[in-house]
Amino acid sequence: MAATKTYLTGIQTSGMPHIGNYIGAIKPALAAADANTTLYFLADYHSLNSVKDPARLRQDIRSVAATWLACGLDPERTVIYRQSSIPEVFELATILASVTAKGLMNRAHAYKAARDRNEAAGVAELDAGVNMGLFNYPILMAADILVMEADVVPVGRDQVQHIEYTADIAKSFNHLYGESYAFPIPEGAYPEGEASILPGVDGRKMSKSYDNHIPIFLPESRLKKTVRRIPTDSTPVEDPKDPDTSVPFQLLAQFAAPERTADVRKRLEAGGMGWGELKNELFDVLNTLFTPMRDRYEELIAPGSDLDDILAAGADRARARSRATLAKVRTAVGID
Ligand code: ADP
Ligand code: TRP
User: Fold this and answer.
1) Ligand 2 atom closest to Cα of 141?
2) Residue 200 CA, closest ligand 1 atom number
3) What is the rounded distance in angstroms from the CA atom of residue 104 to the CA atom of residue 168?
4) CA of residue 43 to ligand 2 center, whole Å
5) Nearest residue (CA) to ligand 1, atom 1
6) pTM here?
């Protein structure tokens, strides 16, 4: 029997996910749950580095959890939990810090980028504005992954270095203590090619940081407005149009059934279909897909919903794993 693998990923709790996150992260992660052990958690302590407003953080945690559940995450099959519910993560982060070279952290992209920004701005203290949460970020992330003994970590390409660091840190630990206990070395699973990168309404990659994104659960009227406002050129309705340079068409192609996409492509290329009509098609496709999920989302974020119970049950299941790992790790290092 082929052993099933343990898939684990962490989701930052900063704002409602957008339709690019849906295509690039949520949909593939849900698909992986069919054949593997899956643990998906809310990286709320990671988000604390950027979110300093408690009311907002509280709301974002619920919103992100509700989004995944509404999009089809089955909590019976996938363990969904909050990072902050797993004390062993933080205990392991301390142990891992003792086997991690500071030089490795000095070379981390996010930390280096912060120093480069200071240098470019002529700030003498290159570490100005850098807190220890940012500096230690990769160690906490390694603890998230290793405490659950994950094999595969599906993430975006921006996370490659973090996964490499996790493997490096695990190897340092295994080198010292491997006779007693060795972590499985995890690998990243990255989206293939450019095909699954969604453009935002301005044509650049859709991203919260560019503010060009379409949140998944916009109310219907706002979704319609957002789609209608996507900029298009002034080609007259009757002229032929190039679908491949059109943002609404590229979005449509990710969400519509292949026959519908092919039909729209033909009508654009032949001429006679205006951008307005294309946007109506796009709105219809998005609204039809997301309306039932939006209804479930609204239920889940309402006070008193079963959201908190689902997260508590997930935390119990996750802790069974994290406790077992920590018992082995503590024995290995001599703190038992
Ligand atoms: P953002 O850029 O909006 O802050 P994140 O960096 O938090 O998004 O990305 C979270 C997940 O969603 C990652 O796995 C990433 O690969 C995926 N993702 C983000 N933007 C897109 C996009 N435009 N198209 C496809 N996937 C995306
Ligand atoms: N750093 C990840 C991101 O920004 C979030 C994250 C935290 C994570 N811990 C993790 C991802 C562990 C995978 C595994 O998207």
Assistant:
1) 9
2) 23
3) 9
4) 7
5) 207
6) 0.92
